Amino acid sequence: MGQMITRIREFMRSGLNPKQGGGSSIRRNSQSFFAVFITSLKSDKLALIGVVLLIFFIFVGIFAEQIAPHGPRDRHYTEDRQIRRLEPPSWEHPFGTTDVGRDIYSQVVLGTRTALIVGFLAALLVTFVGSVVGIISGYFGGVVDTVLMRIVDFFYAIPFIPFVIVLAAVLKPSLWNVILAVSMLSWRTVARIVRSQVLSIAKRPYIKAAKVAGAGHVRIMFKYILPNVIPLVLLEMAFMVNWAITAEASIAFLGFGDPRVTSWGQILHINFVSGYSRAAWWWTIPPGLAIVLLLVSIFFFARSLEAVVDPRLRKR
Amino acid sequence: MLGYIIRRLLIMVLMILLVSTMIFLLFRTMPGDPTASMVDPSIPREARQALLERYGLHESLWTQYAIFMKDLVRLDFGTSYFYNRPVLRVIQDRLPATLILMFTAMLFAYIIGIFGGAWMAWKRGTKLESLGITFSLIFRSAPTFWVGLLVIMFFAVRLGWFPAQGMRSTGYVGNTFREIFLTTDFLRHLVLPAFTAGLYFLATPTLIMRNSMLEVLSEDYIEMAHAKGLRERRVLYRHAARNALLPVVTAGALFIGAAIGGQVLIEVVYSWPGLGREIVQAVTRSDYPLAQGCFIILSTLVMVMNLIADVLYAFLDPRITY
Question: Rounded CA gap, A201 and A229, in Å?
């Protein structure tokens, strides 16, 4: 199963790059990672759009409290003390109001921060655990490899959303538990991909040379192998951010998210449960659109990262 | 080959037992009084004790585990608190709905994905291809439940073309499989959820097909076919697409396994009476035996799909040896 997953993954990934082999820059050895990245941005408009959008989202996420005009739970009234129920977009409330008179624009702005926090923290955790397992498994091989890969197989057999639902029932719903749940089931993918990369690196002569020279296992793994895997890991991490954001939104939509934290999924949950998802388009569309834009921007960002990571995608 | 399948089947059984153990421990070792979530703590103590004994919750963890495993082997998942029926019966009622929805959506996604992917490979480097890729990526990024909400809003509420929820119109009672699933009423209810799930699935077969086609199109025999003067369409679909199908087919079975999570969301949005919606409701109602049973069945489904993917792969690609 292992080789198949990596193969499919490769297929999916190269699908991101429509101009296969038509990348961007010439990389001399002296050129830094960053420089290549900038050149690839210049030639790829979609990647540029992605990066600009991503920076915009991060900006909104950091200054969410300053940007949002109202609190997420503030109720708004008209001059004659009537609740502003289900008002379509207006200058005062750019995305309209909910059935109890809350400002949707502010909720969406505040949800940006939640999405980014969950996305990045979970991805960090996942890639860390996944890479460590992958490196150990690929480097030592033998029994260690077999045991670790059987554990990975085990985690592949668990359906994600149902597991998270059960976990949410057992643990208290909180943002940290969501991050934990996402991480628990996602490190396996990274582990598998890193392992297959390490398998080929570990056979190279310089690793043997390092062994002969008396370098310890830990030193070889983290000083000599890890740097070669890092570009791939970074790319995987970008995909994991997307995965985590979608997962968090799904959990919150089902109502198992942290009730105290405003998130895009939670806005949609209330929208759906209240029954107004059938009429109040201004309530349904913005949070979902925000998710799509954020994910697509990360995809395009990852695509430009990919040109840096994979020399085959660059023009020689 | 046969030996390989048997070995894999044995591993699968072991995995199911492991997953069941995990879910058993998850429910039994949760913080606080684990019985509180299974038997209402506010009822009188004697009644509560009686209930605990009836469900066997007063025994030690080990005894409970032994009983749990023994029942599991006999496919006895206990009794649902909410329905007051055996869990297995409830699951039996829900499973067909889930499977039908899933396979319809897969079929939809695969037919469009295979032809679309082949076409995109043919048009590689053009604006149309970038457009195709961008669209499949957007549908892949859009959360399924959100797309579902929009589809309901537009096709069911605004246009009124199809019903928005459930599996049959109110008042319709069917008893046999035929009466429930082989009616036009059912098919009308199936359209929107299958469409939504299909849109989400679409990206995988499309992109894999495209890349696989790109590989195949550079082979010598394609050039040969061109040299023979065959028409483009014939080369594309008769010569190239056939050989490009392999990774798409195998990815499919694997993907179904991964797609079960998304299925839960679609079932909730469309109030589709399947396993996914049942597990959400069971957890909300603290109906733990039912949640447990649904979870074990869903994981088994994932494992069976993974197994089918592996066997298909080994069967279709003679280069793979096990």
Answer: 9
